[in-house]
## 1
Amino acid sequence: MHLLYNLLALVLVILAAPVFLYRLIREAGFGERLKQSFGWLPAETVAKVANKNAIWLHAASVGEIVATSPMVKEIKKEMPDSVVVISVVTASGYDMAKRIIPEADGVIFFPLDLPWLSCRVVKKIAPQAFLLVETELWPNFLKASRKSGIPVMMVNGRIGDRSFGNYRYLGSVLKDMLQTVVKFCMQSSIDAQYIIKLGADPQRVMVTGNTKYDQTYTDVSEEEQQQLISQYGFGRHTPIIVAGSTHKGEEESLFSSFGEVRKIFPQAGLVIAPRDIQRADELVNMAADFGHKAVKRILLHKGAADGHNVVILDTIGELGRVYSIADVVFVGGSLIPQGGHNILEPAAHGKPIIVGPHMFNFKDIYALLSDRKACITAKDPVLLTDKLMNILQDSELSSTMSKNARAIIEENRGAARKNTLQLKMLLEKKANNL
């Protein structure tokens, strides 16, 4: 099975060669990313982290980086002399890590999961421990870590319904990976049950909570909020709707609902942050079709817009702070069967939250916020308008939802510390066995 995996991985890389070439020509910065993916890491970064007993955290993209940020802060607090290196898969994840985790000693792109590349990079960095953030399981990299005697730990572990179904097809490869992981620190009891059903040793599995409750990089003062409102071109007393991580098939409903909101609140503002920022121009045109005037966020940096009521957020890493200026937040990927996205960021700002009916990727968090009336569900696009209007017109409802959201965040903090203490125990055990 492992041989078949390697053959498929090699074939995929070969088939992707034309895509690599196209992006190399057209996409700024892709050359550096490609070099690192094939194991050629920046000499400056290697000098900082290689053979320094680094703690290596691997986070695929933006969402995992958000979870990684409080972990790194705790590691530096508990083990101040530790060297920390973070690897990512996506360019957005790389930019986010650079921006919100200044404590990291190095940020690199994760090598392609080919056997010789994994062995080469593992030997080059020679970390004292490798931490998988959420669901980042890579067969060859884990095998290389095991051969080098590097303990592997899953932190902030999460197994969604879709991942659970897909992993089961990996057979002996999955079994080999799970046997390599020494500790599984899972977000919830549901995640713990899933990883055990997949074959993890129950003795190695524990529930430590979700480190995203501990994130602080989005903290925004009142003065900074007013600056953001001004930068976005909205009035100080204008009701603002922020729609985060939206997908194709959702924005039409948002623009339609926004039109209804404007009948009651003519000065209302809307910020849409599409999951794929390459769709920004498409959304500007779509807004016009619904009678709204939209502008891309990047143009606001240049002062090139006037008279708009919609901002399309086409920058990386800004959404978490933009939630702070919202009167109500819609979190995307939920009106369509995508599974939803992170609702903890708007909750951390104490914002009333609306989602669609498809939140299966965040079942436990969604259930918690819903049960405590910090989050309400619009089961279809028509109800989205009703829910928005209810919150904007009912100050008592809005206030209650805000207070409940903040309370939930405060009550659930501490996962990053729990994960870090488990890491310390792991490293102490490793040191005693030397």
## 2
Amino acid sequence: MLKTFKKGGIHPPENKLSAGNPIQEMELPKVVYIPVSQHIGAPSTPLVKKGDKVKAGQLISKSSGFVSANIHSSVSGTVAKVDTIPDSFGYPKQGIVINVEGDEWEETIDRSPDLVRECSLTGPEIVQKIQDAGIVGMGGATFPTHVKLVPPRGMKAEMLLINGSECEPYLTSDHRLMLEKTEEVLVGTTLLMRAMGVEKALIGIENNKPDAISLMKEKARGYKGIEVVPLKGKYPQGGEKQLINAATGREVPSGALPISVGCVVSNVGSAFAVYEAVQKNKPLFERVVTVTGKSLEKPCNLKARIGTQVAELVAFAGGLPEDTGKVISGGPMMGKAVASLEVPVTKGTSGVLIMPEKEAGRGEHLVCIRCSRCVSVCPMGLEPYLLMTLAEKKIFDRLETERVMDCIECGSCSYTCPSNRPLLDYIRFGKANVGAIIRARKN
């Protein structure tokens, strides 16, 4: 019997339109727009100025704290300006604009396609290389990877979980990485294990990817301590706490981190980036992005340089369909709609979804009929209808008591509501305010 998490969950249509399409490499853009904050934590500090010449892989913005991440140039060329630019969702953020001139990489980067399995580095040395390379969680959360690998005092990691579930509808970039870069992902997994000082790793893959399960299982036999765990398809299995529960049976307590039950979770894309950083000296400056949609001419998986505008990816996929109603950065459940295609690919850009107009609109908001569907599907065991009401009435002390900060913002409640209630919108509003209250209390 296939494993899955116990609480809640939904089964939206998968729509994996690009699953059978191999990764294609985007041609270089003429200009890149690189935000200095592409991660959870403090923004990085620019090291370059207008007129500076840079190479691909060169450090151009340095992390400004432990919970922060380095940013590297994705191209070679001349810095046009260091100024306010749109981030991946269109919000104005500080960034670096570079005019592209050729494709010269830092000499220390190994550009050969040869697999490198052996590594003589110690755990702390691997963590340092990961930090230097600016690697973050590439499933969308963008938490700096090196921070995860250094557990808080008094806590110890027992196992690593690699998230290959890719439960978000439409997205297929992780699926293609597991098929096309299988051994690189496995070597990256062993490097993460050494960095953590653990001897066990579980790779969770949902059963809608039988080809990836089969191939990863076959190749994993050559890697000590790595086990591939097939999972029953259910959203949001890609959430850290849900994956841990599905693969190990352990349950992360309310308000606690995965390390509290001895687990560290990393995305398939992050494992691949770790391989490239440690074995090839390549910082994180490009990633695979799924560009997809039912009306799109050529749904695809594209390897794009960080800073490439989404408009160029959409053009590669055949252009914006006439019936487009919404463009989403990410997947349909947890992604965010963008107002313009003039936004850049960042480290956390897992997909670009073009939704047709007939599917993009929201239904009329009706009164709650007390059906409790939102409660039954919540993977965190919360009461979304109550959280929405409390947020709407700004009763923030009660919201905190009702564990609003445990919400992972998966959208299962809104998806299943027959009254089209904007549950998640209000819960996000409530979380933002409760979070601010908690931070103020600590200061």
## 3
Amino acid sequence: MSKKVVKNVKNVRKDKKRKKKHRVLKVFLTIIAVILLFAIGFVGYSTYKNGWGMKGLLQTAMGQDEKKLANLDPFTVLILGVSEDIETKLTDTIMVASYNPKTQKATLLSISRDTFVGNNKKKATSYDKLNALYQSSPEKTLDAVNEITGLNIKYYVAVSNNALVELVDTIGGVEYDVPIDMDYDDSSQDLYIHLKAGLQTLNGEQAEGLVRFRHNNDGTSYPSEYGDNDIGRMRTQREFIKVVLDQTISLKNVTKIGSFIDIFKDNVTTNITDWSLIKDYVPYIVDFNTGNLQAASVPGTTGTLGAYNLSFFIYDEDETEELVNELFTTQNGTTETSTSEDKNTSTNETSKSTSVKSSSIKIELLNGSGDSALLNKATKALKNKGYNVYKTGTTSSTAKTTIVNKKSAATDITSDIKDILGVGSISNSTSSSSTVDITIVLGKDYK
């Protein structure tokens, strides 16, 4: 056989092999295409059943179906913000957070870090403050919070203050309306806060200063109607968390999930071991609207205790129970509770025309007169007229009584309150996060 013939035979064989490879590759690609089409169709159908959009995609990715939501209970956790820049670890932020995927409602309840948790008020020391319990263990703090609230919270999440700095920087800053000028320096904590009031984009370091601010170098703090010192700080913390959630839970940050996980791993301590508990809630959080977030703080008064006259926050057990029932028990749909509004309505039947309208108004009464007897007098006067004095507290000394309308209550209501007290200037300061309709700050002009 000539060389030419042999060469032609080899070429024919190569062509056959090449065509065979092409056929195999074509079949293989066809199979892959069919699998992909099937997968896309399955995902599309499942997403359609779960509802189009990010929630549907997440449900499908996590193997959930439209029946999963029916079996999800509200998730409640204790959040602890821990200072890492001092030798003794203390909890600057103490909050109970709850999320109900069925109602798409969430709650943040702040508890003052200075809350008295000891057994003897006459012998009270700094170790009897709620924020000191973390030095023993976070479980001690969890037990104390359950005692204060009457809840049965199982989980805690302790977050280093470094986490907030890293999170805010990761999402490119947070746009926030700073309520007042803040000017504070503390070299012992390496804490320097210098912020001007107004809407601005805060970086991580500025955000940390914002949520840790209590008062300025000259001793001035938030205005009394906002809530001074620790009360004001807790309010700022709650409102800032709402803004951070609103700006973090967005499609543009999906690519940063890996960074969020790293921040979590490096800065969070928790007793949650079964993370399947959490992942079931993820698809529904995407649809969460921060307008459905209720925020409040445990009611009570500040005072001095112990031989060294240390400042403590003494929570009001009855008012706390009432507030917790409203925010958690009723919201979660587990029981119906009788609120102070019901009590006021039933005990003021002789003046139905007034009580029906007034008992639906929640009033926060803050004493800036310096006389606790006047707080009791004002509380009694308002309740006798059918008003729901939802919570009371103390604030810095103020000369004039102010009546702050936070929920656009009718003008005849605020005028009626002024008539009952006999004094007071009326102002409007709408706050969607407020759990009360009207805040009254008693001044020294109230007699």
## 4
Amino acid sequence: MDTNLKMAPSFSAKDYKSDQYVRWCPGCGDHALLNCLHKAMSELSIEPHMTAVISGIGCSSRLPYYMNTYGFHTIHGRGAAIATGVKTAKPELSVWLATGDGDCLAIGGNHFIHAVRRNVDINILLLNNKIYGLTKGQFSPTSDRGFVSKSSPYGTVEDPFHPVELALGARGTFFARCIDVDLANTTEILVDAAKHKGTSVVEILQNCVIFNDDIHSNIVDKAWRAERTILLKHGEKMLFGTNNEKGLVMDGWKLKAVTIGQDGYTIDDILVHDAKAGDDVLHLKLGLMAPENGLPVALGVIRDVKEPTYDEGVASQIEAVKAKNPVRKLKDYLMTKDVWEVK
């Protein structure tokens, strides 16, 4: 978050809510994310008029209508480009991008990876329900191989993108993941994302009740969530399980899930999460964990490192050029170039 942002004394979640009727399907995971965003902004207490929410096209991209902030509902896949422009032109603003797996990773893929590569100080909320919802149920770039949909009636014949791979492959400085049914931790993660200086990418595993219901139920269901997910926190042991009786260790070059007290493993063997180290290889390994590999899905802030930001670089460059070239009138500037007089 930009340290130059003007901080207001106090705001409540309702101060960030617009008067618009929320037009998402009942039960859609977008409702939960919107609720968490309002709460996160109240904790950050950045004045609504110092906040801008940008979006592309898709169900999630309706989010700016429901914010009592500046907002811009742009065109398909171009949200990251517009958000980059907003932050570069007005670096004092807190800029958020609401996008979906189709909007962000298909037609918007190039804009996404270049925003991450540049490390623009924006917060990208990537709602991933593994389907195109607004256009009525086609498979998306994150749909699993073999997924049956309206546009793949016999199953897809391609492997999906993993957002964490794209983000870290573009040298991303912040990546986090949360689930739509866990409001408390989602709110905390959004606050962490806003405080990060640079591009923060938050993948929200979100449910589409109409076209892809229960797509994330294999990990988010309360019956087995504790066994199949791990909430990573910087500086803390990587523990999971109903009673935190399990943890992660390194087995050669690979991560391995073990039970404490079995096979000679003790609490001392369990890895401590370091989100702020530059070890992008370990961060990627954590981000790619999955139950089918015998590992829990990583939630929380996986990576949070410091690097120079694009918007600060542009601002510094402008000031440096201005210092060498004092401000003049337009006529004076034009007369410094090649000129001639027509008589």
